[in-house]
Amino acid sequence: MVRHFLRDDDLSPAEQAEILDLAEAMKKDRYGYRPYEGPKTVAVLFDKQSTRTRVSFAVGIGDLGGLPLIIDGGTSQLGRGEPIEDTARVLTRQVAAIVWRTSGQDRIEAMASASEIPVVNALTDSFHPCQVLADLQTIREHKGALTGLTLAYFGDGANNMAHSYLLGGATAGMHIRICAPGGYHPDPATVADAAAIAAATGGSVAVFDDPAAAARDADVLATDTWVSMGQEGKDERIAAFTPYQVNADRLADAAPGAIVLHCLPAYRGLEISADVLDGAQSVVWDEAENRLHAQKALLHWLDAR
Ligand code: CP
Ligand code: NVA
Question: Which of 4, 125, 131, 179 is catalytic?
Answer without folding.
Answer: 131
